[in-house]
């Protein structure tokens, strides 16, 4: 029986071998469909992706969400280094205590070896504060990126229907999967712009405080973008079978239900109200977008100190093994395949 924790990860139900095989097969199917449509009408798909991307950038809501995220991330960096860091220095805290006691919400580890040299102690604390800050910023990217993806996904088809340009698209010799991929590609480019803006602002602030450019944040953001991309595909699919507002509502519900807090709360509710066993609850969680495996792998890029990694893994099983992404790949591929089957048969009246 799998040990329980606050955030549920149901990937163990299928087993690593079966899950890996599913990931390769379903990922290969999606890649094959994409290559087929790319060969058939790649130039038209590229134009559609570029048009969708520019259309998103002209949306006021996009910049409102990006602006709120940037303001909050700047506030976090300033508070951490102008207020929290000096207070931690005065209290004689170590970098491990910062990460374990504040971020992980676990008991502060005892018997932590701390550097004897004052300069080394200061560097150790600075590394801990920097790690805590970058972890919070990564969480901001996933949260606001997911909101962006959902709101963008709500309008990808709705805007075409409002402008009645969808009829022009489907009347052309353009594979409907290319329409879907083109829309999703424009959404991903918009998310990439957001990630780069967030990194430039935050890395600039960290550089100002003498931390240096944290290039490790870029691969962490790249991996973490699987979550908003999955939610964008899910919202786009739901918008083909329901009204945009309904699709967005259910996508937001799934977003909150599938994060660490949401899965923990749902697990407690289903066990106490429905009297389900752990394994029965976990089968239900296979239906939710798998955010946790993505986070565990993305955080891996930010933690480079062996001692810090040792104490962090006491609370979270972070890993550098990419096989943990098998369930997110299967989930995203399933959404894309179901969307392809639905969108290719949809009648636009």
As residue ranges, the low-confidence spans are: 1-7, 102-110
Count of domain modules:
1
How many alpha or pi helices? 14
Tell me about the biggest sheet? Answer: none
**Helix and strand composition category:** mainly alpha
Strand content: under 5%
The helix content is over 70%
End-to-end separation in angstroms reads: 52 Å
Along the chain, the helix and strand elements come as HHHHHHHHHHHHHH
Shape, principal axes of CA atoms: globular
The whole-number mean of residue pLDDT values reads 76
Count every beta strand, where a strand is a DSSP E run of 2 or more residues. 0
Radius of gyration over C-alpha positions, nearest whole angstrom: 22 Å
């Amino acid at each position: 029986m799998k040990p329980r924790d606050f955030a549920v990860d149901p990937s163990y139900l299928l087993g690593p071998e079966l899950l890996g095989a599913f990931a390769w097969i379903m990922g290969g199917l999606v890649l094959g469909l994409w290559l087929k449509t790319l060969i058939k009408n790649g130039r038209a798909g590229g134009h559609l992706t570029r048009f969708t991307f520019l259309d998103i950038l002209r949306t006021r809501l996009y910049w409102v969400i990006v602006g709120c995220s940037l303001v909050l991330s700047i506030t976090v960096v300033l508070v951490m280094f102008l207020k929290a860091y000096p207070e931690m220095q005065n209290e004689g805290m170590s970098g491990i205590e910062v990460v374990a006691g504040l971020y992980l919400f676990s008991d502060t580890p005892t018997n932590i070896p701390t550097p004897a040299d004052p300069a080394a102690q200061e560097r150790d604390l600075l590394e801990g504060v920097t790690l805590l800050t970058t972890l919070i910023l990564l969480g901001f990217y996933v949260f606001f990126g997911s909101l962006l993806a959902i709101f963008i996904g709500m309008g990808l088809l709705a805007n075409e229907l409002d402008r009645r340009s969808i009829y022009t698209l489907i009347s052309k010799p353009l594979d409907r999967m290319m329409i879907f991929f083109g829309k999703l590609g424009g959404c991903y480019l918009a998310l990439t712009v957001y990630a780069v803006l967030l990194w430039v602002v935050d890395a600039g602030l960290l550089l100002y405080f003498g931390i240096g450019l944290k290039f490790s944040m870029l691969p962490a953001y790249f991996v973490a973008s699987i979550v908003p991309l999955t939610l964008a595909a899910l919202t786009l699919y739901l918008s083909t079978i329901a009204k945009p507002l309904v699709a967005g509502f259910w996508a937001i519900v799934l977003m909150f239900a599938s994060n660490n807090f949401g899965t923990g709360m749902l697990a407690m509710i289903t066990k106490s109200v429905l009297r389900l066993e752990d394994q029965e609850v976990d089968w239900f969680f296979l239906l939710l977008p798998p955010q946790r495996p993505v986070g565990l792998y993305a955080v891996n890029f930010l933690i480079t100190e062996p001692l810090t990694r040792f104490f962090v893994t006491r609370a979270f099983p972070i890993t550098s093994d990419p096989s943990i992404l098998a369930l997110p790949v299967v989930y995203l591929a399933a959404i894309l395949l179901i969307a392809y089957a639905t969108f290719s048969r949809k009648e636009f009246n």
